[in-house]
């Protein structure tokens, strides 16, 4: 089957790119242009016509990439045309009339590249991350994964386990032969070395995932403290409705920000209070869940009515900045109950001390994004496979010590399989859909 799609962004643009990949690609180009296939990888100006009527659609550049030396590993072409909506649609419509040719699914070009051995799963994921990168730190991380250091590390660890497995299977195949003491010591040392290295990778404070997904900040606190005003101030737009009526915010409102190059997701949550309204109660429950999962909590309270007992005390225990709002209405000094916490005295109405709060947030961000430079885990999928690998390696060590080689070998095979699934060294059809569905159509 041959697939096609608009690979450049939707909407009006100076140039649009339509990509075609598959066995019919060459015939489609011949039919569109009425001429032979251009020289490989050489931009060639051609008139592009409707296949059925020969009516001129546009004049543009044709790039031909014969397989297997193409992005997908198949015969592939790119047609560069003017980016008007009618021009794009006319070209897509005429290609759709070709037999055995259909519109590509999200990520299908990159999926083909993986299936044809052009890239591994980590590189496929990094391509998706590069496309969706909104900040410089996200771009740099995606490029780092694309370079292949992570793949090299996981393949290296997998190869070590395969060598250990060959020793263990030799013992199973020839039970009458005793393994030399040197080999037994090597099995124990090498498997333990891999275990230590994986545990070290797992102990990364989830920096890679935070960079990819964004640093999560939850704005929480009682009703009418100024949470929605703070969200609007930080995002520099009216993202949330601000009202003097308590309980206006019923659901979680999220906005994505770029703070000094760091990707941040800020959530405004429902005010926490005792309520009999069922919808508001659900919003409050969501608020507490959001606070629990946040990397940082901005606990907003009213300077006039300070009571840090109950749920507020729990919220301030970890990863929190206390925002004491409405300082313009405050008489006298803050009491010691507030000053013992990491806090900022603000007035959102008068824009007072907002810069000080932002500096505190930036300091928290800088600390969270510190890494050793070798970010290997960027998705929960990677982490879960490594956790499973550690579990099976621990089982292997225990059974190997008891000389239960048959069961030990199975644990080692499973540990090796989980390492392989990170880079796509084994049958991973069950996870391909979830990975490539995150891509845009045309990539």
Describe the structure in your own words.
About 2% of the residues have low confidence. Strand 1 and strand 2 form a beta hairpin. The chain has three domains: 103 residues, Probable tRNA modification gtpase trme, domain 1 (Gyrase A, domain 2, 2-Layer Sandwich); 141 residues, Up-down Bundle (Four Helix Bundle (Hemerythrin (Met), subunit A)); 158 residues, P-loop containing nucleotide triphosphate hydrolases (Rossmann fold), CATH 3.40.50.300. It is of the alpha/beta class and 443 residues long. It has a six-stranded mixed sheet with strand order 3-4-5-2-1-6. A six-stranded mixed sheet has the order 8-9-7-10-11-12, sandwiched between helices. It contains 16 helices and twelve strands.
Quick structural summary:
The protein is of the alpha/beta class. The protein has 16 helices and 12 strands. The strands form 2 sheets. A 6-stranded mixed beta sheet has the order 3-4-5-2-1-6. Strands 8-9-7-10-11-12 form a 6-stranded mixed beta sheet, with helices on both faces.
């Amino acid at each position: 089957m041959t697939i096609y799609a608009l690979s450049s962004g939707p909407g009006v643009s100076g140039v649009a790119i339509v990509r075609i990949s598959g066995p019919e690609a060459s015939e489609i180009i011949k039919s569109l242009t009425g001429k032979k296939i251009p020289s490989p990888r050489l931009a060639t100006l051609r008139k592009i016509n409707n296949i059925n009527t020969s009516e001129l659609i546009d004049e543009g550049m044709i790039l031909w990439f014969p397989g297997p030396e193409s992005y997908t590993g198949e015969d592939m072409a790119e047609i560069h045309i003017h980016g008007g909506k009618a021009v794009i649609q006319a070209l897509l419509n005429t290609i759709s009339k070709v037999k055995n040719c259909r519109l590509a699914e999200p990520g299908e070009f990159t999926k083909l590249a993986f299936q044809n051995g052009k890239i591994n799963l980590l590189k496929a994921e990094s391509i998706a991350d590069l496309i969706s990168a909104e900040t410089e730190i996200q771009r740099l991380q995606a490029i780092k994964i694309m370079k292949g250091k992570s793949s090299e590390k996981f393949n290296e660890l997998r190869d070590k386990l395969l060598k250990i497995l060959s020793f263990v299977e030799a013992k199973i195949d020839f039970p009458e032969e005793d393994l030399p003491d040197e080999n037994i010591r090597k099995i124990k040392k090498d498997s333990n070395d891999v275990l230590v290295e994986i545990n070290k990778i797992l102990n990364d404070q989830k920096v890679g995932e935070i960079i990819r997904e964004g640093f999560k900040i939850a704005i929480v606190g009682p009703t009418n403290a100024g949470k929605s005003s703070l969200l609007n101030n930080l995002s520099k737009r009216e993202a949330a409705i601000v009202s003097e009526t308590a309980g206006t915010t019923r659901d979680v409102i999220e906005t994505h920000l770029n703070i000094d190059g760091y990707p941040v997701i800020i959530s405004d949550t429902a005010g926490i209070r005792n309520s009999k309204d069922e919808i508001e109660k659900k919003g409050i429950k969501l608020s507490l869940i959001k606070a629990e999962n946040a990397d940082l909590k901005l606990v907003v309270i009213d300077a006039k009515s300070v009571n840090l007992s109950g749920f507020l005390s729990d919220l301030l225990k970890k990863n929190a900045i206390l925002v004491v709002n409405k300082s313009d209405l405050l008489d006298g000094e803050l009491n010691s109950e507030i000053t013992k916490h990491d806090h900022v005295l603000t007035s959102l109405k008068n824009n007072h001390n907002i810069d000080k709060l932002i500096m505190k947030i930036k300091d928290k961000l800088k600390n969270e994004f510190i890494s050793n430079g070798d970010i290997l885990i960027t998705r929960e999928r990677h982490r879960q496979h490594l956790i499973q690998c550690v579990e099976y390696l621990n089982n292997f060590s225990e059974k190997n010590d008891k000389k239960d080689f048959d069961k030990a070998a199975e644990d080692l095979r499973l540990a090796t399989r989980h390492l392989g699934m990170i880079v796509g060294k084994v049958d991973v059809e069950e996870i391909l859909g979830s990975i490539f569905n995150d891509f845009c159509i045309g990539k």
